[in-house]
Amino acid sequence: MNQFRSYMSDIQRTIDRLPIQSIETVVERLHGARMKRQQIFVMGNGGSAATASHMACDLGKNTIAPNTPRIRIHALTDNMSFFSAYGNDCGYESVFAEQLANYVEANDVVIAISASGNSANVLNAVKLAREHGAYTIGWSGYDGGKLAHLVDLPIVVPSHNIEQIEDIHMMLSHMVTMALRNAVQKPHLFAVNGSATPLPTLIAN
Length: 205
Known about the structure:
The protein has helices at residues 2-16, 20-35, 47-61, 80-90, 95-103, 120-131, 147-150, 162-185, 200-204; strands at 39-43, 72-75, 109-113, 135-140, 153-156. It is α/β, with parallel strands linked by helices.
């Protein structure tokens, strides 16, 4: 059907416009956090919550290697008792920030996923993370929303199609997972201390 061909061609054009250098920086930051045993937190609502949970699973399990620190990743979407308690007692805008307040420390990494970039509970958590000295990454779409201006590293999917934005966020998660797995196999491509190093080979493979 023509609509399916149109969807595929549209999403390919969007993928071709992604900021590869920024994606490489995400990998560098997460690899650095892994090697320094810092924590990584990820969150989102709706489809973005599913992406956050999926990402936590993949990074937590699919990057394990002998003699290498495991990635300490937490999805703030997954403890429904904790999540709903704060939603009921303090308001939905607090559900991520209040969880994060229990755990986040300076130099941890916080990944916020929001297609619109304007989800209040995500923005509140990012603000708290920054107050605690965490490094913040935002994945959004459309014009980036408020999130793109709040985080240390914004990645904005250049699309106004919600389904394609969510598709590409999931694709980014898989790209990052694969790159971090490759980092263990090809450590010469990374600085020992996790500082910035060009990673075109990791993203391309």
